[in-house]
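Researcher: I'm preparing a figure for a lab meeting and need a structural model of a single chain. I don't have an experimental structure, so a prediction will have to do for now. The sequence is pasted below. Please return the structure as tokens so I can convert it later.
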Amino acid sequence: MFNSRNPVFRYPTGAVANCLPVHFKIDMPRDLRCSAARLLVENDSTGETQVLDMFWCGMNGDNHEWWECHFAAKTPGLYFYHFEVATWRGVLNLHKGFGGEGTVMGNDCGAWQLTVYDRSFHTPEWLAGGIMYQILPDRFFSSGKPKADVPQDRKLHTDWSDQPEWKPNGKGEVTNSDYFGGDLAGITEKLNYLKSLGVTCLYLNPVFEAHSNHRYNTANYEKIDPLLGKEEDFKTLCAEAKKRGMHILLDGVFSHTGSDSVYFNREGRYSTQGAYNSQQSPYYAWYNFRNWPDDYECWWNFNTLPNVTETNPQYNAYINGKGGIVRRWIADGASGWRLDVADELPDAFLDNLRTAVKMENPEALVLGEVWEDASTKNAYGKRRKYLLGEELDSVMNYPFRDAVLGFVKGADPAQMMEIILDILENYPPQVIRLLMNHIGTHDTERALTVLAGAPTEHHDRRWQSETHLTEKQRQLGLQRLKLAAMMQYTLPGIPCIYYGDEAGMEGYKDPFNRGTYPWGHENTDLLAWYRKLGKLRGMLSCLKEGSFVPLNADDHTMVYIREDSVDAILVAMNAGGNSRTLYLPDEWRTAEPVFGEAPDRNCGLTLPPCSGTMLVRQKHPSPSGPFALGKPETPEEAVESIKDKIMENMEQEPKIKNELLDFLKNI
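Model: Understood. Here is the structure written out token by token.
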């Protein structure tokens, strides 16, 4: 009858630009004796419904007939549609069923969604086809450079391998005031390592002065935190990253500040008159006091995180104005902002922030933290317009995380594929190509732990601190993580590695998911897997903006194709505990396997338990011969491979450990 994802029934499919006509066709059985058909389109922002008559346009075989019409939305927004058909049985409603299929059965009157974005909507080119890497700066690598002006109330670990502090202090408070000393210069030192993974964008958790190790309680947006270095260290990082084809994405925390800040100054650390100290403070109007000074609005009732009023003219000018925070750090070398809790930032503020970013650099990125389908997100009683062209370039893709981890852990493949296809149908294409496809962040348990560990459920922090994967769980987790990464790297969007996942780090909730990177103790096999995936992304055009075609999603298996005019890749995965044999389209019989085995002469592909295969087809013969995933390493990759081998030998030859460590420092 109708399928919104099939161009025969709806063209073009997916989100569309405003004023672009969309062609709708429905296929009705002749025995219903249809006398009329209508398309009903509701404008989500106004609630008005437009009724369009459909026209009979011919037969589809002997027993079915086509009805068609066009619809063009003049203004960007969300539109929801269904069909009404007049038949001998009365008026039938054709509404959305599973998989985008039309159905007249059941009581579900679900409508299809049509996302209409501004036709001038443009997103940055540089991130498409790349790889993102998320770093919690305190926990990645320490350069050992001396620091000045570090507050005396910070606890510094002397052992890099310590577990992060999780116990409350004598007052019953968890202060997050223990530090390991990772810094910006340390990240700069490790750029060649990141280059060997194929990384093109570094997303840094907050780097501005703040009095906690996570730094989401900003104390001063104008200064780099003294433990991380100075502004010159940030500029150096950006410049050195640029030399290697990498960009720096900053974390913008603009819905609240810290109570211990130059702006609020509840703790009295600063000489400035903060909003807590005086109602004549220049920052007083930024905050909403119910009863000054101790009763004020704060983020999720944490009194150390007072909310700001983002629409306050002075605050907005400070963040988004000419010479403001947003533009200043882009001018220093950043390539954009990831916006913390974007759903708590008003539309007007986001509009202004986007304008500020694009005025400083039209190709800078604005990416938001949104946990749900961002196209239909409601926040504080209002439908948000993140992806219509005036606010965000893209979002963190939590729905894909659910689909990837769900599939690998044994959830219904058809349901997991539906999550993926819903997002691809609802988001604009220029958003999709930049989706931040992560499988773990600082806000979630480590992917390895999710995939093989006991569920957290209601376990307390002590249990989480003491519980680690058994050797058997770890081996299963590593198998599953490889499969998850295969999927993460080949779905539309940009894979994002949470620092250390590629090395085999595990951990439950905060702070156990925020341990230090295990330099010298990486899982070298897993690291090689990520490097190979990174090389694949750098070589295949279709993984940048190619189409996504699902072929199979059942019985613990999933198969899909990414394709453009240059090349194509088929990804086949088996998340089950038994081997599965699948039969592929014939054109894949002679494709080159880059992961796993090739299909047999009948195009049958046997997948062992918890494994995957990737097959590549090049549309035009390459002057360099067959697909060269195994080509010689770059100098950066060669150095990192040498380091990996040295670390393996150190475990086998402890007597020469110090000599090997000295050699490592030299290279």
